[in-house]
Amino acid sequence: MRDHIRFHLAKQFVGTEDDGEAGVLSADGAEWLLPILGRVRGIELNPTLRQEDWGVVAFATREGRQFWIGERR
Prior knowledge:
Layout: H1 33-37, E1 44-45, E2 50-51, E3 56-62, E4 65-71
Antiparallel strand pairs: 1-3, 2-3, 3-4
């Protein structure tokens, strides 16, 4: 069973530091993540992204299983 998928999206990085160029990926700069994840058949996504110290987390449910999906720089 595949437990990870890696993709590259050519979007400008929006970080958590004041200049927006440093730090980890900001939840404010990851609005593109939910529409991509929404393409997965049968997935239900919580529309609120959560900021973690290493990046961004989206919470999801599919086929009765709850899980999280993380994105980092």
